[in-house]
Amino acid sequence: MSKYLHMLVAWASRIHGYILSLNDSFEYNFSDKELHFLVIGAAGLMLILLVYPVFKLLANHNRVLAITWIYVLTVLLVLTFAIEIGQSITGTGTMEFGDVVAGMGGFFAVTVVIVALHLLLWTVRSIVRLARGARVRQQALDDRR
Predict the structure, then answer these.
(1) At how many degrees (to 10) do helices 2-25 and 32-60 cross?
(2) What is the tens place of the pLDDT at every residue in 71-123?
(3) 98: which of 57, 66, 78, 145 lies 20 to 30 Å off by Cα?
(4) In the chain, count of helices (H) and strands (E)?
(5) pTM summary value
(6) Distance separating alpha carbons of residues 121 and 124, to the nearest angstrom
(7) d(Cα 103, Cα 101) in Å, to the nearest integer?
């Protein structure tokens, strides 16, 4: 896990250095806080432009559960990484990528159970609707006789 975090930190450091070099080369005098403001603001805008059309499409097709699932997945990923980092800092455990995978595996297992229950409920509802429709059709035929 620490190997991946070091890679992530190195990647972030390279991007940070590149942004600082742009700040210097264009002779802007943005402070660190101003740069964070601009970069996170731009990243947020890009994410909105990417995510909004996908969520709008899902919402138009009445896929609110899919939107909810994507949101929960994102929050859980951040939470599991925060827990692992917290364990490393406080010394209450070792920071392992396997723990993150195991935690997310639990979420996916629960998702499979929810989908299976949803499909079972949908199947039962469909059978009930078909039975009611057949009964209504039979009643209409009996009424004609």
Answers:
(1) 120
(2) 999 999 988 888 888 878 888 777 788 888 888 999 999 999 999 999 999 99
(3) 66
(4) 4, 0
(5) 0.63
(6) 5
(7) 5
